Amino acid sequence: MILVTGGAGFIGSHIVDALVDQGHDVRVLDRLHPVAHSGRPDYLNPGAEFVLGDVTDRETVERCLRGVDAVCHQAAMVGLGKDIDDIADYVRDNDLGTGVLLRALARGDAGRRLVLASSMVVYGEGGYRCERDGPVTPGPRRASDLQVGHFEPRCPACDAPLSPVPVPETAPLEPRNVYAATKTHQEHLAFAFSRETAMPVTALRYHNVYGPRMPRDTPYAGVAAIFASSLAAGRAPRVFEDGRQLRDFVHVRDVAAANVLALTAPQPVAGAFNVASGQPRSILDMATALAACTPDAPRPVTTGDFRLGDVRHVFASPAKAARELGFRAGEDFAQGMRELAQAPLRAA
């Protein structure tokens, strides 16, 4: 039996489908958080057991762990949210929820491995190289620079322009917003738990995930869902900064496949892994591709607006996941954009 927390959500439900398709017994624990769900989704897989409950509730978690061999921890509050007023909600759902789950695992005899949904946000800015100083880690961008349209980070040593490069799993973790801080803490908690209990932990650092079942009209959704919501309403996607921010857009079915590999490998594969396509694209390119798949859609608009919690470039090297997990993204980006444009977004 495999327990999937957050298994009714965007990513979690695709993991559940993939596991059920392979013949695994699956139990789902999900609170159907109102910021992501307006009710019980109609896509819930009937082949999985569903438990309506909160991962922060000790008794519910302990009950759900009975008879479980592996845990896939997807339950989390995601996205940048509205403002700093969300901070306690993120800490409750992400940090406290993970702590309650880890304590129950440590006290019980359930589980032989844990797969954690992590995120590329733990890196803060991605990888950069200075022509003079080599690999560098720029500090947070200054509001005064962003206000006048100077979006690119500069070398912290010589102030020269930088070239973005793929970020490896060995990069330092430097979260730049509340959500990122809680995802980083989830990793720290899980790996501390692993050292204490010897239970292997696999942290999958998702990059920008897109695909069917994304929620609509919510600040807690990913950028692809926000743009799709705008297009569905006949509005032009509003792209922050100049739209040249580089990201790695990875399809949700590829993310589900990575989780299945981590959950079912003959021997657990511990550590952190980038889950990415390996093909960086700008946010404006993604918005333009999505609009091109929507009949009579307005073209995206770059606004020059910014959020201090955003980073400029972050895309990944997926080499470690390929080497150790056997994971390689297989979904075609253009086809994925067409599918997203045609798929109904989930009411939230």
Output the keywords:
seven-stranded parallel sheet, 15 strands, 348 residues, three-stranded antiparallel sheet, 10 helices, alpha/beta, single chain, globular
Your description of this structure?
This protein is α/β, with parallel strands linked by helices and 348 residues long. It is built from ten helices and 15 strands. It has a seven-stranded parallel sheet with strand order 3-2-1-4-5-9-13, sandwiched between helices. Strands 7-6-8 form a three-stranded antiparallel sheet, with no helix packed on it. Strands 10-12-14 form a three-stranded mixed sheet. Strand 6 (127-130) and strand 7 form a beta hairpin. The longest helix is centred in the first third of the chain and has 21 residues, at 87-107. It starts with a strand and ends in a 6-residue tail after the last helix.
